[in-house]
Amino acid sequence: MQKRTRIAIAAASVVGAAAVGGGVAVATGVADDDDTQAPITGDELDRATDAALEHTGGGEVTETEKGDEESLYEVEVRLDDGNQVDVQLDEDFQVVSSDPDSDTSEDDD
User: Fold this and answer.
1) Is 77:84 a contact under the CB 8 Å cutoff?
2) I need a labelling partner for 85 at 20 to 30 A (CA). Which of 30, 73, 95, 96 fits?
């Protein structure tokens, strides 16, 4: 009986420590950027796609993010020449900025 008690106490300590560690991470806002950003969906996706493609003069949307660190919406567009452009949009789907995707230039090397 004493061995079972020690095992139960040890298991409870491990679970408690994990819960406290997770609580500290949440309380301090520590999270991976990818965990806080979600793809654009529904009508917002249609509007963001239209705005980004109009701005770039065409291409193919390859990825979207809502809650991007630079703007409310980010639409990544692969242009016909193969280059990638990140188009930043505000809450009214107006272009805030657009930049060549730095990940694409590194991949091409």
Assistant:
1) yes
2) 30
Structure confidence by residue, pLDDT tens digits, 69-93:
889 999 999 999 999 999 999 999 9
**What is the architecture of the domain spanning 34-108?**
2-Layer Sandwich (3.30)
Burial of 23 (0-12, 13-18, 19+ CB in 10 A): exposed
Distance separating alpha carbons of residues 104 and 59, to the nearest angstrom: 15
Q: Which two tokens stand for residue 37?
A: 């950003």
Q: Which residue has the tokens 């657009």?
A: 98
> Tokens at residue 16, please?
């408690």
